[in-house]
Amino acid sequence: MPSTPRKSTARPAQRDAEPAATVERLDLLDCLATEPLPPLEVTLLGVDADIRREFTGKESVRFFQLLNAGKHLSMLQLIVGDDAGAALWEKVSPPVPPAHAAKVINRIVNLSTLAEGEILAPLPTS
Predict the structure, then answer these.
(1) Hey, which residues does 43 pair with through a beta bridge?
(2) What are phi and psi of 6, to 5 degrees?
(3) Residue 70: half-sphere exposure toward Cβ, Cα within 13 Å
(4) What are the b/e assignments for 59-71, b being 16+ CB within 10 Å?
(5) What are the structural domain ranges in the chain?
(6) What does pLDDT average to in each consecutive run of 10 residues of the chain (126 residues)?
(7) Strand partners, 51
(8) pTM of the predicted protein model
(9) What is the distance between the alpha carbons of residues 80 and 52, in angstroms, rounded to a whole number?
(10) What pLDDT score does 124 carry?
(11) Nearest-angstrom CA–CA distance, 118 and 19
(12) Is 88 buried (19+), middle (13-18) or exposed (0-12) by CB count in 10 A?
């Protein structure tokens, strides 16, 4: 059988590989950040403090890590600063009854907008 001559077709020029487009991922940590609100000035037994009300998602996570670890002084310091946090902690530490201390700390936390409700329950004294 006679064969039909085939014509060769030109191959398309090979393109150089293009790097994949970088996908910008949504950082879910951002949804844990608080609304940017101005600080609130408070006072307790002669201790003046400014309660921060703007926290990054990372700071919010740190707050709950401190809370869950029972590091209440560090938690207060995150909200009002090192010096004011230490001074407030001294005012709400024993001999202040645990129920009163919890009430003050819960109020500070609620004002900071990091959490709502009573996140600290009064602990019995040992």
Answers:
(1) 48
(2) -95, 140
(3) 2
(4) bbeebeebbeeee
(5) 57-117
(6) 68 76 90 97 98 98 97 97 98 90 96 95 63
(7) 40
(8) 0.77
(9) 6
(10) 57
(11) 52
(12) buried
- Both tokens of 37, joined, read 């609100």
Which residue do the tokens 């790097």 mark? 19
Q: Could you give the dihedral angle defined by the CA atoms of residues 63, 68, 71 and 72, in that order, rounded to the nearest 10 degrees? A: 70
SS3 sequence of the chain:
CCCCCCCCCCCCCCCCCCCCCCCCCCCHHHHHCCCCEEEEEEEECCEEEEEEECCCHHHHHHHHHHHHCCCHHHHHHHHHCHHHHHHHHHHHCCCCCHHHHHHHHHHHHHHHCCCCCCCCCCCCCC
User: What is the spatial distance between Cα 105 and Cα 119, in angstroms, rounded to a whole number?
Assistant: 9
